[in-house]
Write a structure and sequence with these properties.
By secondary structure, this protein is an alpha/beta fold. The strands form 5 sheets. Strands 4, 5, 8, 9, 10, 11, 12, 13, 14, 15 and 16 form an 11-stranded mixed sheet that branches. The protein has a 4-stranded antiparallel sheet with strand order 19-20-21-22, with helices on one face. A hairpin with a 7-residue loop joins strand 21 and strand 22. The chain starts with a helix and ends in a 13-residue tail after the last helix. The chain binds calcium ion (2 copies). The site of one calcium ion (CA) has 3 residues, from loops.
């Protein structure tokens, strides 16, 4: 096991040093099944393939929704999704900021294995996913789905190796770069490879919803995968109307924050209405989650208790930075009103979709031909209420900007700080007894700390773009 790890690690170094494109996933193992799917995309193995709408909020915290305990901000439509579907209490983002979390979501590898591990800015865009990367977009596309991404991309600029089109999304509309997305009134957005001039006069979020409605109407008769990484409620604090919050005595930014989240909620309601109107409501899985914990700017974190009972916010590897709301609605398949404490994460999305489609999950293929499985585990058994749900041995995160690592193993949580120094600091928490990570019990549990430190060490493969450990 250990020697295999070393081989993988060495090959990764080789891949990154000599051939960026070698960090690639292959679909060759599933070609046979993909062809079956392509020959009859609508009905496969005697069952109708469901549409999948995956909505990703940006910097929305664990406590920001009514169905997760929010008292001030109204989110009736997302609450309805939860009431009509399944709510997860222990679902984790891929990372604690935007780009690396999205990379994990789309590629099925945790941040010790993934290619993009921080917001790596290049001329207003981000480090691009390398050529040949296989994403969940490809998975659906290969299965005959119409694939679409509307929102904030952040995984490669125009003409890069990581454009949405190259990453399995046949249609894209929105921001390619994350920095540009800091304004809701952009100079332009992108529709595929075309710049759409907007002159800074139109609220971008509204255009995204409009595009999503257009896409659903256009492709309602074939299976589609619609990924909507909305930019709300990431700052700036900008919204066209304050709505029901206009007459509160709250601070201006608090009113705006609430109005932004409620606007997104309203638009999710509009999308749900369209699914019903087009009679595809029962054939469509709708998923809602967030890419990382709350930003907490202008005191919103405290005022709204945006992280709920958790410790920490965006950029932390405490629970508040990485544990997020996660609801799935699929009428007739997912029992309504069920809450699960199954431990799941963004890197489970790819294998779950492969499970849904009945195809093998693609492997990472290294430059010397060796392969690595996804780090994820399908949560399809959990959402369908079936037996046989596999559990993670551990979850792992690393975040370069803060020089931190974290491991979740059952009730245990290791947070490791200053990992770029000779003497990293380990904190240990028992999440069953101490959900808020307020009582560091590392000194009383040296054997558990050592075990989890070893897991962290093994889970991390050096990535030359994101050196983080001492001596790398
Ligand atoms: Ca984010
Ligand atoms: Ca709190």
């Amino acid at each position: 096991m250990q020697s295999q790890h070393k081989v993988t690690r060495r090959n990764f170094l080789k891949s990154c040093s000599f051939a960026a494109g070698a960090f690639a996933l292959t679909s060759s193992a599933v070609n046979g099944q993909v062809q079956i799917a392509n020959s009859n995309a609508k009905v496969r193995l005697g069952r109708k393939l469901p549409n999948v709408i995956h909505i990703l909020a940006d910097d929305l915290g664990y406590g920001d929704l009514g169905c997760y305990g929010q008292k001030k901000i109204k989110t009736p439509n997302i609450d309805k999704l939860a009431a009509e579907g399944m709510k997860f209490t222990q679902h984790y983002a891929g990372n604690t900021v935007c780009a690396p979390s999205r990379c994990v979501l789309l590629t099925g590898l945790h941040s010790g294995h993934s290619f993009i591990r921080d917001n790596y800015e290049i001329n207003g865009y981000q480090l691009a996913l390398p050529a040949g990367t296989k994403t969940v977009g490809h998975l659906f596309q290969d299965a005959g789905y119409k694939t679409c991404c509307i929102g904030k991309w952040g995984l490669g600029g125009p003409d890069s190796t990581g454009t949405p089109a190259k990453m399995g999304f046949q249609h894209f509309f929105g921001y390619l770069g994350q920095v540009q997305a800091h304004s809701y009134y952009p100079d332009h957005l992108w529709r595929n490879s075309d710049q759409i001039p907007l002159g800074g006069t139109v609220y971008s979020h509204d255009l995204m919803t409009k595009e999503a409605l257009w896409f659903i109407n256009k492709y309602k008769d074939q299976p589609f995968f619609l990924h909507i990484p909305y930019t709300i409620p990431h700052t700036k604090f900008q919204v066209p109307e304050l709505g029901e919050y206009a007459n509160t005595d709250w601070a201006s930014d608090h009113k705006i924050q609430a109005a932004m989240i409620s606007r997104m909620d309203r638009d999710i309601g509009t999308i749900m209405e369209l699914l019903k109107k087009q009679n595809i409501d029962n054939d469509t899985i709708v998923i809602f989650t967030s890419d990382n914990g709350p930003h907490a700017q202008s005191g919103t974190g405290t005022f709204f208790d945006a992280n709920g009972p958790l410790r920490g916010i965006k950029r932390d590897l405490y629970e508040g930075g990485i544990r997020d709301p996660f609801v799935i609605r699929w009428p007739g398949k997912v029992k309504p009103g069920v809450t699960t404490d199954h431990i799941s994460t963004f890197w489970d999305f790819l294998p779950t979709c492969a499970d849904l489609l009945g195809v093998k999950c693609p492997k990472v293929k290294w430059s010397d031909g060796t392969e690595q499985d996804t780090d994820g585990i399908s949560y399809l058994p959990t959402i369908l209420g079936k037996s046989g749900q596999k559990q993670h041995e551990y979850l792992y995160w690393e975040f370069k900007a803060r020089k931190t690592q974290a491991v979740r193993q059952g009730k245990w949580k290791l947070v490791r700080k200053s990992v770029n120094t000779e003497n990293p600091i380990s904190e240990l928490y028992d999440l069953d007894a101490d959900l808020g990570e307020s009582n560091n019990i590392a000194s009383a549990n040296p054997a558990k700390v050592a075990e989890l430190e070893q897991i962290a060490s093994n889970a991390h493969i050096l990535n030359p773009y994101f050196k983080i450990l001492y001596g790398e």
